[in-house]
Design goal:
The chain is α/β, with parallel strands linked by helices. It has helices spanning about 5-10, 55-65, 75-85, 110-120, 125-130, 150-165, 180-190, 200-215, 255-265, 285-290, 300-310, 325-340, 340-345, 350-370, and strands at about 20, 30, 40, 70, 170-175, 195-200, 220-225, 240-245, 265-280, 315-320, 370-380. It is elongated, with a radius of gyration of 22 Å.
């Protein structure tokens, strides 16, 4: 049996919206009834690497190399594959979702963790500034109104998150994994606290320091290039701690360590807000993401992260799911990314352009299908200080 015949057999079993496949001989075949949602274009007549135990990596690399194209939204292809994951009945299945056996599960040295972070975030401020919002916030936005722009939604997310900490003027706030510093700047300028951010990225640290100087916040805000595990309790303790989109990089073996560090750095009664992507199913990230996007990353389940916090003797006060907001955020990022593709291509190459398109659209599909969510957990070290009885204060203007 020829490879295309094997693929044809798989495609005939796919349930869901109709789609087309254009094979390397330019023969086009539709699967399903109705208007096709997309067309999968297979340029390579060999297709031998599709019949492996790691189709996720094989498909991702084939798309990056231009051996596969998609007419339509790449997210629809990934979404349909997720819905048909039950077709996984052996290495010959195109829609099988294979994962790396080790991604995110092995302990990593501080040096390796540093390398993992810089692999992604030190691509350059010029690259990220092309498609992020003006605040350079690289995490899930919060769309209080459907018509909100990305800029509005990111500021709303910062305020929504910081309000959960019930910040008081003069308090000391630590932001672990502060990115380019948007939460640090917002906390210092609007909430009048002493905000410290830490990141392992040299690019982020430099950008954040420059932003603090431009805003005239040198006395209230600072950003350091430092690993959370090296922070010394004797140097400083904090009234509040926030971490947005950083725990995904910690790795499964280090989750308990991270929780213990947060507890050690918090003052008694202090609050911490932990914001992270969670996965519905326990397991490593897929091998394509581990190899090309987030090496060493791991997405815990909500019960897993709640268990770690409970084991560290934190009290959990509030949990909110922002999953629908992240899908909307990813769609905004994708739209902005496509508008600047020619600039990205000039900075890198076509393979890089396609790699990041795959990442953004694949993530959007995973949130659409409910495989991924974003959770914010508000926890305290012991009894919290003056925590309100309701959430009403979060929504006050």
């Amino acid at each position: 049996m020829q490879p295309w015949q094997m693929l044809d057999g798989v495609f005939q079993r796919v349930s869901g919206p109709a789609f087309c496949v254009e094979y390397a001989n330019h023969e086009q075949k539709q699967y399903g009834e109705g208007e096709p949602l997309f067309t999968l274009v297979l340029h390579d007549p060999r297709l031998s690497d599709f019949f492996t135990d790691d189709i996720t990596l094989a498909f991702g690399e084939a798309y990056m190399d231009g051996r596969i194209d998609v007419r339509g939204d790449l997210a629809d292809v990934v979404s349909l594959a997720i819905r048909n994951a039950s077709l996984a009945d052996g290495p010959s299945n195109l829609l099988r979702t294979a994962v790396s056996k080790t991604a995110g599960f092995a302990r990593r040295s501080l040096q390796r963790q540093h390398e993992d972070v810089t692999h992604h975030y030190d691509l350059g401020n010029a690259f990220f500034s092309l498609w992020l919002d003006e605040s350079m916030t690289y995490s899930c936005a919060y769309f209080r109104n459907p018509a909100d722009t990305l800029e509005q939604a990111q500021i709303t997310k910062l305020d929504h998150s910081l309000k959960k900490l019930r910040l008081k003027p003069g308090e000391a706030l630590l932001d672990i994994g502060c990115g380019w510093g948007s939460a640090v700047l917002r906390a210092a300028s609007r909430f009048n606290v002493r905000a410290t951010g830490i990141t392992l990225s040299e690019e982020q640290c430099r950008y954040g320091e420059e932003s603090i100087q431009k805003a005239g916040l040198e006395g209230r805000a600072r950003i350091r290039r430092e690993h959370y595990a090296t922070l010394d309790e004797g140097d400083e303790s904090f009234d509040k701690v926030i971490s947005i989109g950083m725990m995904e990089h910690v790795g499964k073996p280090h989750l308990a360590e991270f929780a213990s560090v947060v507890k050690r750095l918090l003052k008694p009664g202090g609050l911490a807000l932990l914001h992270l992507i969670t996965c519905r199913f326990t397991g490593p990230v897929n091998s394509w993401t581990d190899k090309y996007i987030f090496p060493g990353g791991y997405l815990p389940t909500l019960p897993e992260i709640a268990g770690c916090l409970n084991d560290a003797d934190f009290r959990i006060w509030d949990i909110e799911n922002l999953g629908p907001h992240y899908r909307r955020t990813l769609d905004c990022w994708s739209e902005r990314y496509e508008r600047c593709v020619h600039q990205v291509r000039g900075m890198y190459d076509e393979r890089f352009v396609r790699m990041w398109r795959m990442f953004l659209r694949g993530c959007s599909a995973a949130f659409r299908e409910g495989n991924l969510d974003v959770h914010q957990l508000l926890v305290s070290k012991g009894d919290p200080n003056d925590l309100p009885l309701t959430r009403e204060d979060l929504y006050a203007e």
